[in-house]
Design brief:
- There is one protein chain.
- The chain is an alpha+beta fold.
- Helices cover about 20% and strands about 25% of the residues.
- An eight-stranded parallel barrel has the order 14-15-18-21-22-23-24-25. It has a five-stranded antiparallel β-sheet with strand order 4-3-7-13-10, with no helix packed on it.
- It is elongated.
- The protein starts with 12 loop residues before the first strand and ends with a strand.
């Protein structure tokens, strides 16, 4: 094949129609574009695209079949000091490729060679050293598949890594471990459904590469926050192959999870790409039109604006970049059937020239899109630049990872002074952050741990990070842990230390699942997973990060118990903020009330005591704000949640009438360490560092 028919400028990418492929790529400043076809022996055939429409080069190639590997070579201006980096020696991936095949090596992948401070085109051919795009046919037997559409009030999220979740799972066949098929295996699905979670949030599954500095250290990017293919499932997670099989395998996984009642949310990284800064490899966007796709420094276009800490920032202000992101989101929703997205470093997507703009083109485009409107949209509401901390600042219908929730819960359970007000605010749904904007408690995605930081087991076992395995002299990661007074740092054989550490893990798991808002569990916390103190294991694709399935110490049972209780109790999954007012005109019982250990309601002076470590949260099961089908107030069980972070035991005086005539014990995080009273009388004994939930009988 030596020529291409004119073809069509839309849709972008390589689209198979049963007889051939229409190819279209946006490269407005190019003088010419070649589509390069690769045979099985890597022999390359170049076909010049002769047609250009509004910056899109296009052509139709007859006889091309799914599985065909291809790429682009762009001829055009090369002037790095002015932001132009076209170089036909560099084979480029298709930004709209549905699949990507092959690995990246570092030979000849930069667009330029620097001699004495001046840049010249690097003329070495990069094709032998870079992956290729793959033609894929859009055909999958979805049948009657549909997402569960779980309401936010009922949602419990489980954040997991596709590879790490099953890499050591004994119930998953060896050949499927660490893959999409492994996650779809009944042994993996049974664990998820057994916990009672309603959604899995997958760390990045867009095709990604490892950063050059990691490859030089013989490490790799494990987490995947270094995307290059926004339409392509990461080929490294496929058991079936990388010539399009990864697409079908991902779809099969989604179908299996949906059949089990689980939603699939994917973590997406549209804020930067794997091309890094000006010293990074030329793989796709940089060679197509560097000045369109990236934010360049105003006073030095040879360099990049970096709001992400990863070397570059995609320029969502440009219509073509915004179109790319929106097309990608719709593709994953419509063709791959995912149920939602968690946006990494979301403020970077919403920046104007400098500042985060809640009326930005990106937020407006997502808000009005009819496909995305019904999906779950979650922002990581911070980026790496000035003014990037935006917790509480995203508009409806966005939900947010609530970093203030994480910090408040950790502070309370480690015994920090003045921690009670923050604890109470977060337990009740973070109204300070979300109520002023007319949002509800479900705007808050609550978490204590996530992939980024200590696991829960390490949080209570280490006073500082231990990231030596990352080969960066332990300088990477945030050293934000503080003493938990849980014994000597690191592994311990002391039974008392182990009991206290495990109890603190139960405390935080219970607090998370009993708080108003949307709880998010980190995969492995229910198993007591340790990363040996590494709080930035992004480059550890080994047993440091892979889940260990040989022990859980009862933590999984606790999660199952509370998730089931939450599912059955409206008051534990509030859809509206508490008022602190009586639940009815003839009642003195408030919808929420706070009690001291001596059984009286909290006063203003009580909140300001730095040494306070104990509080009771009363939740009334009668709620006039939520109505049944006939307009009646919904009645549910009432509860008294007792939390005690003190270092000595405490006897909590239980509120009597009108709050309750008696109480029944539901759970006690100290129960494995002693025999708790099963029928509480007028008081309840709390061990040091413990939590108890009582059902109030009125």
């Amino acid at each position: 094949m030596s020529t291409a028919w004119p073809g069509e400028p839309r849709p972008l990418g390589a689209r198979y129609d049963g007889a051939g492929v229409n190819v279209a790529v946006f490269a407005p400043r190019a003088d010419a574009v070649d589509v390069c076809l690769f045979a099985e022996d890597d022999t390359e055939q170049r076909v010049r695209l002769r047609e250009r429409t509004n910056g899109v080069w296009h052509g139709y190639l007859s006889g091309i079949e799914p599985g065909q590997r291809y790429g682009f070579r762009v001829h055009g201006p090369f002037a790095p000091r002015y932001g132009a980096r076209c170089n036909p020696a560099k084979l480029l991936l298709d930004p709209y490729a549905r699949a990507i095949d092959g690995d990246l090596t570092l030979a000849g992948v930069r667009s330029e060679t620097v001699f004495g401070g001046s840049a010249a085109r690097d003329t070495r051919d990069s094709a032998p050293h870079v992956p290729k795009s793959v033609v894929v046919a859009d055909a999958f037997p979805w049948g009657a598949d549909t997402g569960p559409c779980t309401p936010w009030e009922q949602t419990v999220i489980y954040e997991l890594h596709v590879r790490g979740f099953t890499r050591r799972h004994p119930g998953v066949p060896e050949g499927l471990r660490g893959t999409y098929a492994g996650l779809a295996h009944p042994a993996a699905v049974d664990h998820l459904t057994g916990l009672g979670v309603t959604a899995v949030e997958l760390l990045p599954v867009h095709h990604f590469f490892s950063e050059p500095f990691l490859l030089r250290r013989s490490l790799s990017n494990y987490w995947g926050y270094n995307s290059i293919g926004y339409f392509a499932p990461h080929a490294g997670y496929s058991a079936a192959g990388s010539r399009g099989e990864q697409v079908t395998e991902f779809q099969s996984m989604v179908r299996a999870l949906h059949a089990a009642g689980l939603e699939v949310i994917i973590d997406v990284v549209y804020n930067h790409t794997a091309e890094s800064d000006e010293n990074g490899p030329t793989l796709a966007f940089r060679g197509l039109d560097n000045a369109v796709y990236y934010r360049l420094a105003e006073n030095d276009p040879a360099r990049y604006r970096d709001f992400t800490g990863c070397g570059n920032t995609l320029d969502t202000r440009h219509p073509q970049v915004l179109e790319l992101i929106m097309d990608s989101l719709r593709y994953w929703a419509e063709t791959m059937h995912v149920d939602g997205f968690r946006f990494d470093l979301a403020p970077a997507l919403a920046r104007s020239a400098h500042n985060v703009d809640r009326y930005s083109a990106f937020l407006a485009a997502v808000h009005q899109d009819p496909v995305l409107g019904g999906l779950k949209l979650i922002a990581e509401p911070w980026d790496a630049s000035e003014g990037g901390y935006q917790v509480g600042g995203f508009p409806a219908p966005w939900r947010e990872w609530n970093g203030k929730y994480r910090d408040a819960i950790r502070d309370f359970w480690r015994g920090a002074p003045y921690a009670l007000p923050g604890l109470a605010t977060r337990l009740a749904g973070s109204s300070d952050l979300y109520q002023p904007g007319g949002r509800t408690p479900t705007a808050s995605v609550n978490f204590v741990t996530s992939h980024d930081g200590f696991t829960m087991a390490d949080l209570v076992a280490y006073n500082g990070k231990h990231n030596e395995a990352n080969q960066d002299d332990n300088r990477d990661g945030t050293d934000d842990n503080r003493s938990w007074n849980c014994g000597a740092e690191g592994p311990s054989d002391d039974p008392a230390v182990l009991r206290l550490r495990r109890r603190q893990q139960r405390n935080m798991l219970a607090t998370l699942l009993l708080s108003c808002g949307v709880p998010m569990l980190l995969a492995g916390d229910e198993l007591g997973q340790s990363q040996r103190g590494n709080n930035n294991a992004y480059c550890q694709d080994n047993d440091l990060s892979w889940l260990s399935w040989d022990t859980d110490g009862g933590l999984a049972d606790l999660v199952r118990q509370i998730v089931a209780l939450r599912r059955d109790s409206i008051v534990l999954r509030q859809g509206a903020f508490f008022t602190g007012q009586p639940v009815g005109p003839d009642s003195t019982v408030k919808d929420v009330a706070w009690f001291t250990a001596d059984g009286r309601e909290f006063s203003g002076a009580d909140w300001g005591k730095p040494e306070s470590r104990t509080i009771g949260m009363y939740l009334s099961g009668t709620d006039l704000r939520q109505r049944g089908p006939r307009g009646e107030a919904l009645c549910d069980a009432s509860y008294l949640l007792l939390v005690h972070a003190g270092t000595a035991p405490c006897t909590f005086s239980l509120p009597g009438q009108p709050w309750a005539t008696r109480y029944e014990l539901v759970l006690d995080t100290a129960a494995p360490d002693r025999q708790p009273p099963t029928a509480p009388a007028g008081s309840y004994p709390l061990l040091a560092h413990s939590l108890a939930l009582l059902r109030a009988i009125r």
